[in-house]
Design goal:
Number of strands: 58
Helix content: under 10%
Strand content: 35-45%
Radius of gyration: 57 Å
Largest sheet: 8 strands, antiparallel
Structural class: mainly beta
Shape: rod-shaped
C-alpha cells in the first residue's frame, strides 16, 4: 500500500518512472541506527545496456520525498520514499546529450540504471553526492565496488541495484516547441575564452616549502605544499537565437464622428469593430545545450612525493543556474479602442470609411515582451532572463580567467627518497557538470622539480680524561685511560650547503644512524666488541670501557652519520655530504691510549716480632691479606676505606692493628712495598723508578723539614733510589703488572737539616764531632718521600704525583687515591704529611736499640 503519496506509480518496494518522467524509489528495510549498511545516494542513467565507461550516461541524485513510514503490517520495518524530479533528469540528459534527450522525450524507451552507493556506519554515511553529480568520500558506482566494500552477508542482493532496465515514458512537452511565426532562428555556438584547448596557458601548480627552496635542495622526510591557481570552469554552449517580425492580430473599436448639413447640422458618432495585424519585432535567446566542465581534482606526479603522486580532490563545485523559460515571448494586449476622427459628408450622411486603420492603432499596441533562458555560474550571468520589450540582451561569453586557488599542505617526502632531482608532471581534472564524470585531464605545465638532498653532518667527539692522565709529557690529543670508561658522541650540528634551510644548524633529524669505530676492542654493557667494528650509538652518547689489554699509543677513532635515505648507498664525504651523491658524513678524533701508575702499598715490615703477625699468619706459614694503602680511594677515586683507617701509609704509632702502642718501624728495618702499572710495561727495558727525598719530624708531629743523610763512617751524603726492573715485575694479566721492591735505610746515619753544610761544620769543629752534637737530629722520625715514575721503552712515561702538570687538570694519583695528609697517632699527636711520604722510621727505636752485641771474651 502506498501510504505516502498517490503519485508514486507502484505499490510497495520498487523503482519506476511516472508518466511525467519523475523517478520514484521506495525501500523497505528493517529499522536500525547502528551497525553497517549500504545506502543508495543516486543513480547513473545509461542510454545503453553496457558499462558506464564509453556509454552515454548521467548521474542524478536521490532526494527524500517524505519521512519514513512504519510498515503497518510489520512495525520493525520502515518504508523509505525517494524521488528524482523530472526537471533534474531532463536537464542532466539534455545538457550532456541533446540528441538522446530529443529521442527519449519524443518517443520514450528503455533506460538502464546503476546504483550510486555508499556505506552507512553507525548512522553516518561514509560518502556523499552533490546536486550536480560530483562524488566524494567512499562512493561506489559498480557492483564489484560495493560488494567488496564490506563483508556483506548477502552480496547477491546488491545485484538488484545494477543493470536495471526501466521504461521511460515519452514526454514531448519537456522539449520546447518552435514559436509560431518564428521564421528566423539561428544556432549559435559559443566557447569560453579559456577552454579545453588552452587551459595549459593559465593553469599553474607549484611545489613549495616555507623552509626550503624546493627546486634547489630539500631533505627527505620534510614536508612540502602543493599549491596552484587553476581555471575554475569552462564551457561550450549552443544557443538558439529567435528573432523576426510577428503579425500581432489586434481587434480595434474605431469610433468615427460623422458630420453633414442637409439644412440642418448633424453630428453622429458611430463605433465599428475592425481586425488588423500589427507587425512587431522580437529577438530572444534559448539554450539548446550547455557542456560545462568544472575543476574537480588535480594531481601532481613526482618521484619525491608519497607513492609518486599527490591528488588534490574536490577542489571546486560551481553554483550553476540553468533555467529554460516557457514564456519566452508574450504578445501585447490585442483589443484596443481608437478614435477614427471626423468624417464630413457634405449635405448627406457620409459612409463609414473602409481605409487602413493600422496607422490609427499602431501606437496603441504594445511591444512584444521577450525573455531569454537563464544561465549563470557563481552569480555571474551569462544569459540574462529578465523580461524585455522587443529584444533581449545577447548572451555574454566568459572570455578570461576565473581562477581557483588550490593548496594541500603537510605532504611528507618519504624518508627513504634518494638524493636526486625529480621532475614534476601535473594534470587538472575537469568533470562534466551535468553528467558528473571526468571528461578532461588537462596537463599543467612548468611545475617546478623537487631536488632531494638529505643533509648529514658528522662531528666526532670523545671525552678527554686528563684528570686521570699521568703522562710526564701530556699528549696533544684526547686522553683515554686504560681500564676506565670514556664517552663518545656523534655531533650532527654544523655547516652544510649554502641553501635556504641548510647552512649552519642541527641536522640530527636526517640521520638514520650515528656510528663509531675504534681501532682497538672496547667493552659495552659487559660485552667486548672487536676492533674495527661499526657500533651504532642509540642515544645522544655512548659509554665504553677501554680494556687494559689495549696497547698504549695514538689512535684515530672513526665516526659516521648515515642519512635516513642512505639505503644501500655507502658513498662517504668528510664532515658533511654537500655532494648529493654521498649519503654518509664522516669524522675522526685523534686519541692517545694511556696507561696507569697506581696502588703504592706497604706489603711487609721486617721489624720482627713487632710487625710480624700483621703480615704473616701464625707460624709464618703464609702471608695475611694485610697491606697498607696509599689512601682511602681506589685508582679511580672511589672511596674504599675511611680516613681514620689503620691501613694507610705511612705507618705510624697506632697503625698496628693488634697493639696501638707499637711505634712506627724503626730506622734500619726493611720495608717491602708494591706498585702497579697498567699499559704496555712489558718490555725488558721498562722500569719503575722511585727517587727519595728525606724529611725529619719531631715525635709530636711538629717541625717537618727536609734533611740530608750522611754515613757515619765517612760523613758522605747519600740517598737511596729504587729502580724496579723486569725481574721485579709480575705480569698479573694482559696489560697489568705488579712491581715489588723493598727499602731500607741503615740505622747508622747522621740526619742533618738540608740547609746545613756538614763539611763546613766539621771543619769548624776541627774534625771532632759527636752523635750528640746539635747539628745532628735524633730521637724524632725520619720520613721518606718518593717521586715515582714509570720508564717505558727507555723514556720517562708516567708520574705518580705529576706535580708539573697537576695545575693544568692532570692526574695526581696521590690525590686520586685519597692520600691522607693529616694523621693522628695513638697518643693523639697530629702529623701533617705531604703527598708521597710513604715511610716513617722511628729514629729512637732503631735497629741498634733493639739488638745488643755481646762479647765472648
Amino acid at each position: 500500500m502506498n501510504i505516502c503519496a498517490a503519485s508514486i506509480p507502484f505499490e510497495g518496494e520498487g523503482i519506476s518512472f511516472d508518466s511525467e518522467g519523475n523517478l520514484w524509489m521506495v525501500t523497505h528495510d528493517k529499522a536500525a541506527v547502528t551497525g553497517i549498511r549500504y545506502t543508495t545516494l543516486g543513480w547513473t542513467i545509461k542510454r545503453y545496456n553496457s558499462p558506464i565507461a564509453g556509454n552515454q550516461s548521467v548521474r542524478v541524485k536521490l532526494e527524500t520525498y517524505c519521512p519514513d513510514k512504519v510498515d503497518p503490517n510489520n512495525p520493525e520495518y520502515l518504508y523509505g520514499y525517494f524521488v528524482i524530479h523530472k526537471e533534474r533528469i531532463f536537464q542532466s540528459i539534455n545538457s550532456a546529450y541533446p540528441e538522446w534527450a530529443q529521442e527519449l522525450y519524443t518517443n520514450g524507451g528503455t533506460v538502464y540504471l546503476d546504483g550510486i552507493m555508499t556505506v552507512t556506519q553507525n548512522g553516518v554515511k561514509q560518502g556523499s553526492m552533490s546536486e550536480g553529480g560530483a562524488l566524494s568520500g567512499e562512493v561506489y558506482t559498480t557492483y564489484s565496488g560495493i560488494a567488496g566494500a564490506r563483508n556483506w552477508r548477502d552480496k547477491e542482493g546488491l545485484k538488484s541495484h545494477f543493470d536495471k532496465s526501466v521504461y521511460f515514458p515519452a514526454n514531448p512537452g519537456m522539449i520546447e516547441a518552435p514559436v509560431e511565426g518564428d521564421a528566423n532562428m539561428e544556432i549559435v555556438t559559443v566557447t569560453s575564452g579559456i577552454n579545453a584547448g588552452n587551459l595549459s596557458s593559465v593553469n599553474r601548480l607549484w611545489i613549495t616549502s616555507d623552509e626550503f627552496e624546493v627546486s634547489r635542495a630539500i631533505p627527505s622526510s620534510e614536508c612540502v605544499s602543493i599549491g596552484g591557481s587553476l581555471q575554475k570552469y569552462y564551457y561550450q554552449a549552443t544557443y538558439e537565437h529567435h528573432y523576426g517580425t510577428k503579425a500581432v492580430p489586434v481587434t480595434a473599436s474605431v469610433t468615427y464622428t460623422l458630420t453633414w448639413n442637409d439644412g440642418r447640422t448633424h453630428r453622429e458618432q458611430v463605433t465599428v469593430t475592425k481586425s488588423v495585424e500589427v507587425p512587431r519585432e522580437y529577438s530572444y535567446w534559448k539554450i539548446r545545450m550547455i557542456n560545462l566542465c568544472y575543476l574537480k581534482n588535480a594531481e601532481v606526479r613526482n618521484g619525491a612525493l608519497p607513492d609518486g603522486n599527490v591528488r588534490l580532490e574536490n577542489l571546486y563545485y560551481p553554483n550553476v543556474t540553468v533555467q529554460k523559460n516557457t514564456d519566452s515571448m508574450t504578445l501585447p494586449e490585442t483589443v484596443v479602442a481608437v478614435d477614427g476622427g471626423v468624417v464630413a459628408g457634405g449635405t448627406t450622411r457620409p459612409a463609414i470609411p473602409d481605409s487602413d486603420i493600422l496607422p490609427l492603432i499602431d501606437n496603441k499596441t504594445g511591444k512584444i515582451i521577450v525573455k531569454n533562458d537563464v544561465f549563470s555560474v557563481d552569480g555571474e550571468i551569462w544569459m540574462n532572463g529578465a523580461a524585455c520589450e522587443e529584444k533581449t540582451p545577447e548572451p555574454v561569453t566568459l572570455s578570461d580567467e576565473r581562477k581557483q586557488s588550490v593548496q594541500k599542505n603537510d605532504i611528507q617526502i618519504p624518508g627513504a627518497t634518494a638524493n636526486q632531482i625529480y621532475e614534476s608532471v601535473g594534470t587538472a581534472e575537469y568533470a562534466s557538470y551535468f553528467s558528473g564524470g571526468i571528461v578532461n585531464n588537462a596537463m599543467v605545465p612548468d611545475i617546478n622539480p623537487v631536488a632531494v638532498h638529505t643533509p648529514v653532518v658528522c662531528v666526532g667527539m670523545s671525552t678527554d680524561d686528563i684528570g686521570f692522565n699521568q703522562q710526564i709529557i701530556p699528549t696533544k690529543y684526547k686522553s683515554l685511560i686504560l681500564g676506565r670508561t670514556f664517552t663518545v658522541s656523534v655531533g650532527t650540528a654544523g655547516t652544510h650547503l649554502d641553501e635556504k634551510g641548510y647552512g649552519t644548524r642541527e641536522y640530527r633529524k636526517y640521520v638514520k644512524a650515528r656510528q663509531v669505530k675504534f681501532p682497538f676492542p672496547v667493552v659495552s654493557d659487559g660485552r667486548q666488541i672487536a676492533a674495527d667494528s661499526w657500533i651504532t650509538i642509540l642515544s645522544e652518547s655512548a659509554e665504553f670501557l677501554l680494556p687494559v689489554s689495549v696497547p698504549e699509543g695514538d689512535y684515530n677513532i672513526s665516526y659516521r652519520s648515515i642519512a635516513i635515505n642512505a639505503e644501500n648507498n655507502v658513498a662517504e664525504q668528510k664532515y658533511a655530504n654537500t655532494d648529493k651523491n654521498n649519503y654518509i658524513a664522516t669524522g675522526s678524533v685523534r686519541v692517545t691510549v694511556i696507561g696507569r701508575l697506581y696502588d703504592f702499598c706497604v706489603t711487609n715490615v721486617i721489624d720482627y716480632p713487632r710487625w710480624e703477625r700483621v703480615f704473616w699468619k701464625e707460624g709464618k706459614t703464609a702471608r695475611t691479606d694485610t697491606v697498607y694503602f696509599s689512601g682511602t680511594n681506589d685508582l679511580n677515586g672511589i672511596r674504599q676505606r675511611e680516613p681514620d683507617s689503620l691501613y694507610l701509609v705511612p705507618l705510624i704509632r697506632g697503625s698496628h692493628p693488634y697493639d696501638s702502642s707499637i711505634h712506627a718501624p724503626g730506622l734500619g728495618y726493611r720495608m717491602e712495598f708494591s706498585i702497579k702499572t697498567i699499559g704496555s710495561m712489558w718490555h725488558a727495558e721498562d722500569s719503575v723508578e722511585l727517587v727519595p727525598t728525606y724529611y725529619y719530624m719531631e715525635r709530636d708531629g711538629s717541625s717537618l723539614r727536609q734533611v740530608n743523610l750522611y754515613r757515619k763512617d765517612d760523613l758522605q751524603e747519600f740517598y737511596l733510589p729504587v729502580s724496579l726492573k723486569a725481574e721485579d715485575r709480575t705480569i698479573t694479566a694482559e696489560g697489568m703488572q705488579t712491581w715489588r721492591g723493598s727499602y731500607q735505610i741503615p740505622a747508622d746515619v747522621y740526619i742533618v737539616n738540608a740547609g746545613v753544610d756538614l763539611a763546613d761544620y766539621v771543619a769548624q769543629k776541627k774534625g771532632r764531632i759527636r752523635q750528640k752534637d746539635p747539628v745532628f737530629l735524633r730521637d724524632g722520625y725520619l720520613i721518606v718521600y718518593f717521586s715515582i715514575q714509570s720508564i717505558k721503552e727507555g723514556n720517562p712515561h708516567l708520574d705518580y704525583e705529576n706535580r708539573q702538570n697537576v695545575n693544568n687538570g692532570y692526574c695526581d694519583m696521590w690525590k686520586t687515591e685519597g692520600y691522607q695528609t693529616v694523621r693522628v697517632d695513638s697518643e693523639g699527636h697530629v702529623f701533617s704529611f705531604q703527598e708521597g711520604m710513604v715511610f716513617v722510621f722511628d729514629q729512637k727505636k732503631n735497629m741498634h736499640t733493639d739488638y745488643t752485641s755481646v762479647g765472648t771474651h
